[in-house]
Amino acid sequence: xxxxxxxxxxxxxxxxxxxxxxxxxxxxxxxxxxxxxxxxxxxxxxxxxxxxxxxxxxxxxxxxxxxxxxxxxxxxxxxxxxxxxxxxxxxxxxxxxxxxxxxxxxxxxxxxxxxxxxxxxxxxxxxxxxxxxxxxxxxxxxxxxxxxxxxxxxxxxxxxxx
Length: 162
Fold this sequence. Notes:
- The chain is built from 4 helices and 7 strands, in the order E-H-H-E-E-E-H-E-H-E-E.
- It has helices spanning 13-26, 44-49, 94-108, 123-131, and strands at residues 4-7, 54-60, 63-72, 77-85, 113-119, 135-142, 145-153.
- The chain has a 7-stranded mixed β-sheet, with helices on both faces.
């Protein structure tokens, strides 16, 4: 099974919103918990694409099973948001593939750092970020949850001088 990663299209909206909700429910996050929100989904064009970021989806066959976005914080830093893999497709390397694709895209867009957050409930996500060289910045208690803030400095590809 191969994951094909491409840019988000408006026709993906219902599918990625459902993926978001399924993935969060799987780790016990629910609307109104202070961490879970989904109001950015109808505005992906505005929030991610039109302001210098990006939003990618991963497909197996024609089914969207993974996603992730980059939202500019400033000229140097992008926030990685919405990294999700459908539970039926987890533990196959798709999360790593999406993370690497988003990091590469951030470099292409000129960012030198990516930041994000996850919760202690999301153990697989924490392990993934750690394996990929992200470092913890801080933690914050939000209701019954502990939010972990993380970042990674990006290294642009070497430029060959001729």
